[in-house]
Amino acid sequence: MTRQLSRADRLIHQFDTVLRTLVPHAAQPERPSPAGSIADEPMTEAEREHAEGLMRINHTGEVCAQALYQGQGLTAKLPDTREQMEQAAQEEIDHLAWCDARLQELHGHTSVLNPMFYAASFGLGAVAGAVGDRVSLGFVAATEEQVGRHLDAHLRELPVADRRSRAVLEKMREDEAHHERWALEAGGTRFPTPVKLGMRLVSKVMTNSVYRF
Ligand SMILES: [Fe+2]
Ligand SMILES: [Fe+2]
């Protein structure tokens, strides 16, 4: 009976996370947005549009992170590191909510492609988790490395006036570096360069499509 209940509980929790990830403005952060009371400088329409596109990419990246952690949570054993993984997943919810809020401020919308990227990332996470914990953690580390590279590029590309987005991305950058370190220290495999290059190619497709849609 207990076992059935806990399985039902897990299913409800999973479904709840899917909804909170995919329904705009549904994610509730545990930490306040780093944008806080920072004031923006005036932006031109072209600058606002560019900032919107970049923040939409970052939002979708967090949708993928959420799906990845969820997919792995389903199949990975992670006897010693599950708690840390759940902590990281919670921090990704903060990122998701902060990006969502910033997109709203920029009068932008989240990507219509999010459900597709969610499903793909969930599947990849579940496969990695099923292969083994070292691969699963290695996948987290490689993904976080990739996300870090994106964030660095976006921090360079953001309009100087967009100080609120910058504050959000800087805090995210710090958290993602911490996730990457944790996944490697927990025993994650370092992925070979060709695999990382493949991941970079996939993320290029994602960023190009999500910037506009
Ligand atoms: Fe994140
Ligand atoms: Fe992360």
Walk me through what this model shows.
Pfam families: COQ7 (PF03232). Residues 24-46 are annotated as: Disordered. Fe cation 1 binds at residues 62, 92, 95, 176. The protein has 213 residues and is mainly alpha-helical. It has one domain (45-210): Ferritin, CATH 1.20.1260. The protein is 75% helix and 0% strand. It has helices at 2-22, 45-75, 82-105, 114-131, 133-157, 163-185, 193-210. Helix 2 (45-75) runs antiparallel to helix 5 and helix 3 (82-105) runs antiparallel to helix 6 (163-185). The relative contact order is 0.16. Bound molecules: fe (ii) ion (2 copies). One fe (ii) ion binds at residues 65, 88, 92, 144, 175-176, 179. One fe (ii) ion (FE2) binds at residues 62, 65, 92, 95, 172, 176.
* Series of H and E elements: HHHHHHH
Low-confidence stretches: none
Proportion of beta-strand residues: under 5%
Q: Which assembly state applies to the chains in this document?
A: single chain
Task: Note the main sheet.
Answer: none
Q: How many structural domains does the protein architecture include?
A: 1
What is the CATH architecture annotation? Up-down Bundle
Task: Summarize the amount of helix as a percent range.
Answer: over 70%
- Any idea what the radius of gyration is? 17 Å
Shape: globular
